[in-house]
Amino acid sequence: MHGDLETDHDVLVTLHRFTLATAEQLHQLHGGAAGIKQTQKRMARLHTEGLAEFVTLPQAGRAKAWHLTAAGSAVAATFPEARRPAAVPETEQLAVRHGREHLLDVGRIHAAFVADARTRGEACGPLDLLPAPELSVEGGSVYRPAAELAYTARTGDNRHRLRAFVERHRPGVGAEETAAQLAACAALWEQSGPGGRAWERRWRSFPRLLVVLVGTAAAGVRGAVADLRLAAEENPAVAELLAAVPAGAARIEDLVQRGPSAPVWHPLSSNGRACGWTEL
Q1: What is the DSSP string of 192-228?
Q2: Which long-range contacts link 215-219 to residues 24+ away (Cβ below 8 Å)?
Q3: Alpha-carbon gap, residue 71 to 130, rounded angstroms
């Protein structure tokens, strides 16, 4: 590879983890003070070198979404940061399972958290969101959120680590799927372990639950949130989870345009007013 090896390294690792990303997303994560044209030139060079390939998206503007070639994957696999936990499926499986739109939305969500953290003087880096982790639950079942997020927040002079599970929800289309995801999360939360609950051996506190609404008009947010609350009420375990764990839903456009710390999250446990994700 030619050019800035360190930055090439970062881009390759990100594509290895996330399967698919636009130049804009990669620039938000790795571009620094340079203009987006520098990221576009970098991707063109990686393409020339046979490490990255692109697909043209059907949306207006015909933007490119980048992914690694077999040669690029082989290079990225040599970097320790690119090694995914054994319980996480390979990127090719993610692409088949979730589809292009899902993968790009997860990237948009991640970029929004990274940008917000930089603005606030907090910490959320390019590798602080893990797509599609597989978390084992009793009875052989598995909870697979869209992503698991790690974030270092600041309160005065103190810094503390926050974690969240991210779910992508399409109201009216994926209602049953999201209800099943909430039930799987509840099973993980209530799973017993030595001296308490099993998750306490992994996290200081159970990760927050952030449901991101896609394909939802601004006028449809209240209805979508109400439907999620109804789904929770139907399952006692989910209702108990949401009563104990901070959880909220936000429209992806609001999250990207205003940032996750803005009052765009609607609590799932009550009819409380919208707030930032750390205030749920």
Answers
A1: EETTEEGGGGT-SSPPEEEEEE-S--GGGHHHHHHHH
A2: 215/170, 215/171, 215/173, 216/170, 216/171, 216/251, 218/251, 218/253, 218/254
A3: 23
Q: What tokens appear for 210 in the block?
A: 């952030």
- Positive or negative, the CA dihedral 24, 101, 110, 251 is positive
DSSP-based three-state secondary structure for 3: coil
Residue position matching structure tokens 């601004």: 218
Task: Residue 205: count other Cβ atoms within 10 Å of its Cβ.
Answer: 13
CA 277 to each of CA 77, 117, 146, 160, 262: distance values in angstroms, whole numbers, following the listed order? 34, 12, 17, 15, 8
151-164 burial code (b ≥16 CB/10 A, e <16): bebeeeeeeeebbb
Kindly give the confidence (pLDDT) of every residue in the chain, 280 residues in length, as a single tens digit, with 9 standing for 90 and above. Answer: 444 445 788 899 999 988 899 999 999 988 777 788 888 999 999 999 999 999 888 775 678 899 999 999 888 888 887 765 444 445 445 544 557 888 899 999 999 999 999 999 999 998 899 988 889 988 788 899 999 999 999 887 888 999 999 999 988 776 788 888 999 999 999 998 887 899 999 999 999 999 999 999 999 999 999 989 888 888 999 999 999 999 999 999 999 999 999 999 999 988 889 999 999 9
DSSP code of 172? T
Distance CA 223, CA 201 (A): 37
Q: Tokens representing 153?
A: 């927040």
